[in-house]
Amino acid sequence: MRARQLAALASLAAASTITLAACAGTAVSHASAPAPMAMPAATPSPTFGAPVAATSVVIHNFAFSPQVITVKPGTEVTWTNSDADAHTVTFDADRTGSQAFQNGESYRHTFTATGTFRYHCSIHPYMVGEVVVANS
Ligand SMILES: [Cu+2]
Fold first, then answer.
1. What is the pLDDT of residues 99-110, one digit of tens each?
2. What is the CATH number of the domain that holds 75?
3. 112 in Cβ contact with 72 (< 8 Å)
4. Which region holds residue 3: left if phi is over 0, alpha if psi is between -120 and 50, else beta?
5. 102 CA from centroid of ligand 1 (Å)
6. Shared domain check, 69 and 22
7. Count of domains for the chain
8. What is the distance in A from the centroid of ligand 1 to the CA of 5?
9. Is the pLDDT of residue 32 over 90?
10. Which domain range does residue 9 map to?
């Protein structure tokens, strides 16, 4: 019994050592292989709707509508919550964005730089949207 426990502990320790070694190896190869990071941008998610030129988004039935909007740089975008539940607008890239806001409340954000800005609701992470900021 005692010997078996010791053996189990020993194999656990060995496994930990292997895991640590594997982590170190992974970290090195990860730094030189940006392919996994680039994948989401290269293949747009099929759950995203068609882009719509708009400056306001309504949150209704646990979805952002329109889901994908296009704006010019310098545009202020307004999200208005028409659900009974609170939601957030949280940008995927840096987790900045709104606090939870309630029914009838709005969140505004001005987009200065061009780019594609994906966001989600931090309370309901399956709620996703995108703002495409482009000059044309
Ligand atoms: Cu939500």
1. 999 999 999 999
2. 2.60.40.420
3. no
4. alpha
5. 10
6. no
7. 2
8. 48
9. no
10. 2-33
